[in-house]
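Exercise 7. Predict the joint structure of the components listed below.
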Amino acid sequence: MNEHGMTRRRTLAFLTAGAAGLGGSLYGLSRAGVIRFLDDDAKNDDPVQLQRLPYAPEPGRTLSRLGFGGIRLPILNRKDTEIDYELGQKLVDYGVRHGMNYFDTGWVYHHGQGEVFYGNVLKKYPRESFMLADKMPTWLVHSLDDAKRFFEEQLKRCQVGYFDNYLLHSVHTLKEFKDVYETMGVLDYLNDQKKKGRIRHLGFSFHGDVPLMQYLLDHYEWAFALIMLNRLDWDDENEKDPKGYRAGTLYRMLTAKRIPVFVMEPLRGGILAHLNGKARAVLKAAEPKRSVASWGMRFVASLPNVQTVLSGMNRLDQVVDNVRTFAAKFEPMQTPERAAFDRAIGEFQKYPIVPCTACRYCMPCPYGVHIPETFAWYNAFAGEGRLPADSGPNDSQALRRVFLVSYNNAIPPSARASHCISCSKCKVACPQWTFRIPVEMEKIERFVAHVRARYEAKKSGTATC
Amino acid sequence: MLKKMRVGAATALFVCENLFFIGVGGGLGVFEKVQLVPALLAANIAALILIAVVTLVFGRLYCSTLCPLGVFQDLVIGAARVFAKKRFAIAPAHTTLRYVLLALVGLAFACGIAFVPALVDPYSLYGRIATHLLQPAAFALSNAAAWIADRCGHPLIFKQEIFVRSLLASSVAFVSLVGVGFLSAGWGRLYCNTVCPVGSLLAVLGHRPLFRIAIDGDRCVGCGLCERACKAACIDAQARTVDVGRCVACFDCLGSCRKGAIRYTSRVARIVSSDEASGTAQPNGTGRVGRRGFVTGAAVSAAAAAAAAASKDGRPLQAPESPVSPPGSGGGGRLLTRCTACNLCVAACEGGVLKPALLEYGLGGMMMPRLDFSRGFCGWDCNACGTVCPNGAILPLALEEKRKTKIGRAVYVRAHCVLVTDGVQTCGNCAEHCPTKALTLVEEKDKKKYPRVDENLCIGCGACEYHCPSKPFAIRVVGLE
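Solution:
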């Protein structure tokens, strides 16, 4: 939590310093302040423009390097379904003003309200001026009729006649792909829609492994692909025994097929914007004025076949920072910069965390567990090497107390890990396959119980002494 | 001087009593244990002797210092004096009413309708105010501090859950607070001298104490200042008499007299021997009426007790399913003969599982503690309820002993289980959280593992019910009776 505040403060300081170029200054991060900032920015005649790259599947078209992610829009009353339209509209306008022309959404985003939001806020712009991407929610499709219903409803929600990019959402097992897209015939249906001009380009969003990618590339033609790509999931060409998603391998496979790569989770759900104290120190030493997040962003954008990077757009400091990173004068990462980044990542990876990206596909948990919140709380300790231990420097009663208090205060009793029954409904929804939610939940529950027992034992021990 | 000592003692005791209710201060519970009704019920001889001796020697000092409701009323009266310029005047004693009420309270208790004494016993009445109104307020403050500490990056204060534990008990606490506050703001210690059973008992014991307030007829000019200062409305300035049975020994009158005519003095000293007969104990003959009233009351209550003993069932109005009562209470039957629903155990319960009952124990057992597993379960490492109970209604158990004490039994209803209703493959959350391993999972034909309860091992702590994901709960803990 401390670290969170520090990053934000630092980002703020940095932003205030760099704000002259954006023609405005920040008034703090209250909602009203954000709106004032955006209103002021709207009066600027010469906004910084994002870099644009030509889009191969559609000659003559250029796409902004930064795309508007639709999964984490600003909300009201902490309710995922209540999108803050006033602020959201101004953020979209801000993006457009700065040259952003790629907007991405999905059936499940904000429980359907994400698509409705785009429909409402984009209608004031000419249809040809922006590119809209939507996705077929693979795991919710049980029949071809489902798929048809979803697609028609999506066009209605978005108030458009066609989608520029349309994706098979979250392809992550071969069995599921075959069931839904081959056996049920959903892929044929989507190709029909493409012929009818209701889909301009067909692609997929990918959460699977290398063999699945191989299958997709061997059997079908794709205009583009959206993959999870970031420094933490990246593997180099000759890396020994690579673990995780092997995003590097996936990227190289797509590049070999000349399929443009769209990037999601460039910061792995914000993990790369925080890292940990030691990693941040390395980055700060290398480039004192730049945000932590900008390193991760520059890493992915420096890959030549990366078309557009999608980023959640709910916090102004992030948006402004991203616009700055992807501005027209963008230069790819050079060797010394990459070396510093690798050093920082090395520091970060010394302390393993639960690699949850807080996409919230798992929510709501049928049994009330706050899944992403629990992982975020746990990671705040794990990532900084501050998990209480039975020996060594972390064998401290004070640390145990801080750990237990922060768990108590961060997660309400009825939403704690002890209420997870391993029903595995989240497993189906979770696009991450490098960890299993119920397994991690059980580990966390056991760990907390252990720390609590030890804390109580030591407490009563010292009391009697 | 005397008044300052009384105020000092009262303040200290009141603060300690309240802190203990809020949950701060481990050793402060002793002041709850020396309250009269709890001491009577717990047969706490030492405390009873202490109270009796103090009352016989000093009068009803108890009501002005140890009794939290008395001190609370003094706070209200103090505020009324300052902000509303409240002055008092001699009022007739409701002696007969008082002892009839005392008799009725005794009668209700003898009949097993413990709810009635629980309602008027001053300690328990205040205890519910502390538990249901003061503690949440204190929690709100500490949560605010916790929020700030969290924000500063130093999570050091545990946030507490604030919720209405029982609508009934909270409403009763609120109505009591407003009612008693209203009475004391308008009529001083009217509650203590009419309704309060402790006040009535102590009035009998302390109507002729060794030391008491007396007016020196030679010095008195009949100005009436003392009468106006007397919140017990027991000084008659014109007649120059003090009704000692109603005097709560607050010493407010001593400072009010400019002639030094009113004093706290020994009966043996006999300063005003000529005025003795009319000067102290018997204004308008109340002393005699008092005795008569008490005798009437005692007779009524004796008759009632006999009647109650004759009717075999001590608890005529009981709900059909038996509730789970706290470990050390010996079941609902015993609990109801000892508990006055001060709800101190509810305030102290770490697991948040104790709640004031509605009708689970029957009409007579309203507001008495029962276990409700919707927000928590009886903690394996906690024996707080027994340790704090001043009544001996929940006996203090060592942790080892408490862990072996069976308070209920788990009942599994398969039709409600998520394995059946939600079509999930695994659950077993009940067995996973059972501290005694009374629950085991047994695989059946459908390859799912269903829980089995071993009645011999189950202590009824409710960890299974609390962790059960089914709605309604597929595993429930029911009382033993």
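Discussion. Residues 271-289, 310-319 of chain B have pLDDT under 50 and may be disordered.
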